[in-house]
């Protein structure tokens, strides 16, 4: 990282990952971190606000609330700029950063509904909930285009099946699918996050997943003519 005077640093041309790196050094280089953050917000502000409006519209929130939640998401990025490019499945890192922020955004919306204010940012939010087929697809390592197309089609079918259930059913189902490894249970940190973010008991989380899993299985059986 260049630590010379900020006049020598061209933040406008800097890759977004490097902007996050500058932000992470805000304790030692507060001026540079602030300049990097301003550029980061400018670069991603339009896309994040648009996504916030789409999400908020589903929950009946106004554009004013959507803007507030977008700002809360940026506040969380300022406090914890912990995007890990090694974990990103997106070929384009800017897209990967956006997907990372969309998960934070969704968490903020869920918490907003509980307390009518933005969630206090915590590092636990890096253990992201998965709310739809596209987010789950991004977590699969499927470099072959044809294989990715097949997986995407199946996940979209599953998402259509889940539209008949509640948002909580969908989030629990996709999050379990994202973190559940063959022959192993979902990590406790994830079930804890589901309980906290969705205001559920562990018994309810298990019930929601069981209901969603049976619904998806029946839906697929009907489509395949097995019912």
Please give a quick description of this structure.
The protein has helices at 16-24, 30-58, 63-79, 93-115, 133-138, 145-162, 167-179, 188-198, 202-223. The chain has 227 residues and is mostly helical. The protein has a domain at 129-227: Arc Repressor Mutant, subunit A.
3D structure, described in words:
With 227 residues, the protein is mostly helical. The chain has a domain at 129-227: Arc Repressor Mutant, subunit A, CATH 1.10.10. It is built from 9 helices and no strands. Helix 2 crosses helix 4 (93-115) and helix 3 (63-79) crosses helix 4 (93-115). The longest helix is centred in the N-terminal third of the chain and has 29 residues, at 30-58. The termini are far apart.
């Amino acid at each position: 990282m260049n630590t010379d005077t900020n006049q020598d640093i061209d933040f406008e041309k800097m890759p977004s990952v490097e902007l996050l790196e500058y932000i992470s050094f805000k304790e030692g280089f507060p001026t540079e971190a602030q300049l990097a953050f301003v550029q980061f917000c400018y670069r991603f502000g339009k896309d994040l606000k648009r996504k916030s409006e789409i999400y908020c519209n589903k929950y009946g929130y106004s554009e004013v609330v959507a803007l507030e939640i977008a700002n809360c998401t940026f506040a969380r990025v300022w406090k914890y700029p912990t995007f890990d490019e090694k974990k990103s499945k997106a070929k384009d890192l800017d897209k990967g950063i956006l997907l990372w922020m969309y998960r934070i955004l969704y968490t903020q919306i869920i918490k907003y509904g509980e307390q009518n204010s933005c969630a206090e940012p915590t590092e636990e939010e890096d253990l992201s909930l998965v709310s739809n087929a596209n987010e789950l697809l991004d977590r699969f390592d499927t470099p072959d285009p044809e294989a990715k197309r097949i997986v995407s089609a199946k996940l979209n079918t599953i998402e259509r099946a889940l539209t008949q259930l509640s948002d909580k059913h969908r989030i629990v189902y996709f999050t379990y699918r994202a973190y559940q490894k063959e022959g192993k249970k979902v990590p406790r940190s994830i079930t804890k996050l589901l309980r906290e973010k969705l205001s559920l008991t562990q018994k309810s989380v298990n019930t929601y997943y069981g209901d969603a899993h049976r619904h998806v299985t029946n839906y697929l059986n009907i489509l395949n003519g097995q019912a």
